[in-house]
Amino acid sequence: MSEVAILVPVLDRPHRIEPLLQSIAEATEVPYRVLFAASDQPSIDEIRRLGGNVIIDEGGDEGSYAKRINRLYQETTEPYILLGADDLSFRPGWFPAARRAVDQLDGVVAINDLHNPAGVHFLLTRNYIETMGGCVNEPGVILHDGYRHAYCDDELRATATARGRFGYAHESIIEHLHPGAGKSQTDHVYQIGAASMQQGRAVFMSRSHLWTIGV
Fold it and tell me: What is the pLDDT of residue 60?
């Protein structure tokens, strides 16, 4: 049985799938599974060509990151869950360092992505999600699916922090190859994410009472 499930929603980036899988294979010392969620046919075809596991998102491009993560989680049994993306480069030792940090909390830890100091990719324990949920009053759900993209990670982080179940795994490095760090070119997928900022902030603010009152 694999120890960690790596969840990767992907959209219109078939060229990134093989380098991602190679990076994970080279840097991950424990048994693992990578599960993709995709809707565009080129990505689906590439995942299948490489022998990967893919859940086809019937919602097409409207399927948000949060919805895809939650759907992928339903396919897992692993004790640890990594919320990933297609623009990551894994460094050796990432998992032992993250596991040490998250085991102390039985909750959520942010991974050091060498870009965003808050952390936008996380390792979680299965027990935390099954018993408490990533969101208030949503056991078994990782991310609130009312977000189009932006701020879904902020709610996960804020909720875990209010519960005393959030940490930062400084020694666990998974580099985020993001245009904001000058490590890739922007594309329409990044633009979709950027366009969701206002909507995401509005949802986040409307729900902020949940983790400040009843976590």
Answer: 59
